[in-house]
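Journal club prep — side note

Before the paper discussion, L.F. wants everyone to see what a predicted structure for a comparable chain looks like in token form. Sequence:
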Amino acid sequence: MKERSVDNTMPVLNIAMVGSDELARELAKPTDQRDVHTYVHKETVDGEARILSLIRPAKYPERLRPLLNALSAARAGLIEVTAVDATLGEALVAFASAGIEHGVAVLAPADGGWIDEDMVKSLFQQAGLTKWSFEKADGIELRNAFFSIMDNVSELLASIEKQPLVVPIDQHFNVKGIGLVAIGYVQSGVVSVHDEVTMLPHGGTGSVKSLQVMDDDVARAGAGDRVGIALRNAKEESLSGTCLITHPAIEDKKTNTFRPLPLEAHTVSTMKLTGSPFQKKQLEAGDVIHASIDLQFNVGRVESVDGNVTVRWETPLLQRIEDSPSVLIAQLDSKPRIMGSAQLRKVE
């Protein structure tokens, strides 16, 4: 961890991308090249830095989960259209079901090929991606389009920072001289140095020793930031498996301060599925499904279908009690694999 300290926060727009490494590099510089590749473009205008962060699931369409994780963290989208095929259809379903209202499409037919732009625009409209624009594969034009989107969603990001803290953790490790570090995207709220935090579902606790965003030490991290949280008095097993960091519940009768945990664990849920216009399959009792929310990927079995769908989860699914994002529902043997989105209600 570097020792540079930065007090001001930089606005960041996370962009889920389906497309090539070449197009990503037109837009931003590569920073991490594991199964999800990330690219960052940072620029300063009138003394204020702002960041575009691309999240590209390199193994999609072979693997669905990295795309769903990218969509969980993103507020905008980028789709490189190389052909009108099943992969494009599934990508449109995924972005629409995840509620990614703002995005950019780039037409990039294979050498010697041709793509009917009017047909592609019609597919975007049918999927519900009516606010997306079509741009050339030009870095400057693409960055301008995304900075315009950043301006459009700035109020939304500010409102999300006022919600309770939720940070799904996708990496953790011990750093010599620092201790236990957890890394994830701030989905909502703000985390600050010295905060007390709880790790769910295990229930472990700790305090925030230091924070890093984009390799800089910061005093706070807010919605959209990919943050490294150095923890004091926390146990590594609290971060195992699916882990979401939040602020602990408070019940102080002396000061009349009450703050419940913002997440509840579902073992059985009912849900009303909003299906995609491209999805013909209907869920039936006995079906195995996957749910994606806040970088979780939970397996469930449908117990009954009678208007609403009742699902029993293999491991507890954590959902925000208020202001929960929609849950993406997938069935890995369907085409497209995304069934649609749903709001869950806890049964037990």
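L.F.'s comment for the group: The first helix runs from residue 21 to 27. Keep this in mind when we get to the figures.
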